[in-house]
Design goal:
Blueprint (H helix, E strand, L loop, with lengths): L6 H11 L4 E6 L10 E3 L9 E6 L6 H14 L4 E5 L5 H10 L2 E4 L2 H9 L16 E5 L10 H11 L7 E2 L42 H5 L1 E7 L16 H4 L4 E4 L4 H6 L19 H16 L3 H20 L2 H14 L3
Helix pairs in contact: 2-3, 5-9
């Protein structure tokens, strides 16, 4: 298993160091876009015949990365490959077309989930199911490019699904500072909290909601990325798998199919997953309609129907088979270096 905080030093640098005049560049600390926070493998930039620039931890948003790429490509010439964790991404294509970059892909957040959630299969934290609510839906950062979480909350308010389910929603986005009520179509009593870790963005590496998962039929995962033509899943998608919960993904169009390509199963045939193929302006409303339908369904019957899929995903995640898929993908990416 890869130690995700050492992935560059332990994996990519040793591979690149065996190649003449190859440079590896990544941000330290994670999440920075400052050229002053770049780390690099010698040879120095000007001497590298080919550079690999890792922007694999975050979603590539043009507005966020443009200033950095303007500076980077002005300072350092020669061929560069930008390595991302986005698949079929128009934003990656924009970076290629605008700055003359090549691109490469691997599933960084799959490795992050395997590292952060290791060992939970050797604990006694799972609790017997006693379903009292349809869904669990944690949210923390809701501003900027993550306002799709507020839009889902609006849809849930309009269908009277907020008070009967376990939803967290801050009164202000902890990063953007926006007042959530300003974006709601109906008044709501905020903040809503469902566990003691609500509001802690650095809690991504932990699984905490064991008791809440035992009381809910499924988890609604409001992913980091929702709009635009790209596929980008994070460790959030794997939390319900570790909790042995079914899930609905509020993410980019095609995300369920993308997840299935890594060997996981979803819940078509148990409920309607056609929301995954709808355009951005229809998908959230369709998900809320599905949740309303499930609110009035036979929860115990659905839980039984979901059990084989839930167990497969749990086993696939922890058996080493998912890891092998990721490892083959990663090595395949580096073969052309």
């Amino acid at each position: 298993m890869i130690r995700i905080d050492e992935i560059y030093d332990n994996i990519f640098v040793p591979i690149a160091s065996k190649k003449p005049n190859v440079g590896c560049h990544w941000f330290d600390p994670f999440g920075s876009t400052s050229i002053h926070d770049l780390r690099n493998l010698p040879p120095v930039y000007g001497q590298a015949e080919h550079r690999y620039l890792f922007y694999d931890q975050e979603v590539l948003h043009r507005s966020r990365l443009k200033e950095f790429l303007d500076s980077y490509t002005t300072t350092y010439d020669g061929p560069t490959t930008i390595v991302t964790s986005e698949y079929a991404s128009k934003d990656v294509q924009w970076a290629m077309d605008t700055y003359g970059l090549n691109s490469a892909y691997y599933f960084f957040h799959g490795w992050a989930a395997l590292d952060w959630y290791r060992g939970y299969n050797r604990t006694f934290l799972h609790q017997p199911k006693h379903i009292q609510h349809t869904f669990l839906c944690p949210n923390n950062i809701v501003g900027g490019n993550r306002q799709h979480r507020i839009e889902l909350f609006n849809c849930l308010l309009e269908r009277n699904l907020v008070d009967t389910n376990l939803i967290s929603m801050p009164d202000r986005c902890p990063y953007e500072g926006i007042a959530v009520q300003d974006f709601l179509r109906k008044p709501a009593r905020l903040p809503l909290k469902i566990d003691s870790f609500d509001g802690y963005a650095n809690n991504s590496h932990c699984i905490t909601m064991w008791e809440q998962a035992a009381r809910t039929l499924l988890q609604v995962v409001t992913e980091t990325c929702y709009s635009g033509n790209k596929l980008h899943l994070t460790e959030k998608t794997f939390k319900p798998m570790v909790l042995k919960q079914p899930f609905i993904l509020v993410s980019n169009r095609g995300s369920l199919e993308y997840l299935r390509s890594y060997g996981f199963r979803t819940f078509e045939g148990i409920w309607d997953e056609s929301y995954d193929s709808l355009p951005d302006n229809e998908r959230t409303s369709a998900i809320a309609d599905l949740l309303l339908e499930l609110e009035h369904a036979d929860w115990n019957k659905i839980q039984k129907q979901c059990e084989p899929v839930v167990q497969h995903n749990y086993d696939w995640f922890y058996s080493g088979k998912f890891e092998q898929v990721l490892w083959d993908e990663l090595l395949g990416m580096t073969q052309s270096w």
